[in-house]
Specification:
mainly alpha, 2 domains, two-stranded antiparallel ribbon, 13 helices
Length: 299
């Protein structure tokens, strides 16, 4: 939904820092050290699979890393995260905090409605433990997104793939696929409501259209975006009323009151862009009526 820059950390260095922090469990340290090359190989496969839209083909724990009869287990990789990456006493905690703050307070999954409070494993570490400390698999997430849609598991088909904030197709971030309608009160004596929906570009593939539809539903963006838009509606309607009282045309109101919010939005599928789309369409469709009725509902 909101593009974030891929974390700029060498995965090999991250692994080494974690290994350095393993003091009392030499057997885990030896197994992780021996299998470091396999972790790096899996990371390369991860990046290309996300970018090509085929991460769903990557089976959970594709293999237990095994070299020279020294086997790293699922439990090893999970401990690598919980005991040797996250704790504040470990050197890697700086990396954790820097990835978290890179979102600048805006959860990329819901487009900034929530404030990221932790790092989400894009591919869950319970099924893909080899990515437990891979920076590209760690995404800042707000509680609602992490405990809601991202908690359900992982994609088993192309259409189910969640949009990856670091590595996914540019079209999901640069082209608009979320918009809204504004439904006014029948008597125009009360503010109306916004109804958000997906309107993907017609030239997209069916799979990409299905992905954004599922994403929109999984993260409950219709209700979450509508709540944000409704909270700012009264002030926007007051501005429209002032311009109408001054004799401004509908197009002048759109250009001076609404379009600047679209131009200033942080990204194209931001909730405010959909709200502005809805108000523009409403003003165009109701312009004759609007010019001749009282807008006391705005105050």
């Amino acid at each position: 939904m909101k593009r974030l820059a891929k974390p700029n950390y060498d995965f090999g260095d991250v692994i080494d820092l974690c290994i350095d922090g393993i003091a009392n469990t030499q057997s885990i340290k030896m197994r992780i050290t021996t299998n470091k090359v396999n972790l790096l190989l899996d990371a390369n496969l991860y990046d290309s699979a996300i970018n090509q839209g085929v991460i769903y083909t990557y089976s959970p724990l594709i293999r237990f890393h095994d070299k020279m009869c020294i086997r790293s287990t699922k439990d090893d990789y999970e401990k690598l995260y919980t005991q040797y990456f996250v704790p504040t006493a470990k050197k890697t905690r700086v990396i954790y905090d820097e990835i978290l703050t890179s979102a600048k307070g805006d959860c990329p999954f819901c487009g900034g409605i929530g404030d990221p409070t932790n790092l989400d494993h894009f591919l869950p570490k319970a099924e893909y433990p080899q990515f437990s400390i891979y920076p590209s698999n760690l995404v800042p997430s707000c509680r609602d997104c992490n405990m809601g849609a991202k908690k359900v598991g992982y994609a088993k088909s192309a259409e189910e793939q969640t949009i990856h904030p670091y590595l996914d197709k540019q079209i999901f971030f640069e082209e608009q696929w979320i918009t809204a309608d504004y439904i006014a009160d029948s008597n125009l004596d009360q503010p109306g409501e916004f109804r958000y929906y997906v309107n993907a570009p017609s030239n997209w593939t069916d799979i990409d259209k299905a992905r954004v539809e599922k994403y929109f539903d999984d993260f409950k963006l219709a209700s979450r975006y509508a709540k944000q838009a409704t909270s700012s509606l009264k002030s926007k309607l007051r501005s429209i009323k002032r311009e109408l009282d001054r004799g401004s045309s509908i197009q002048e109101i759109i250009d001076d009151v609404i379009q600047p919010d679209i131009d200033g939005a942080p990204f194209v599928n931001y909730w405010e862009v959909g709200m502005c789309d809805a108000l523009i369409n409403y003003l165009h469709s109701e312009q004759r009526k609007i010019k001749n009725i009282s807008l006391d509902f705005c105050v």
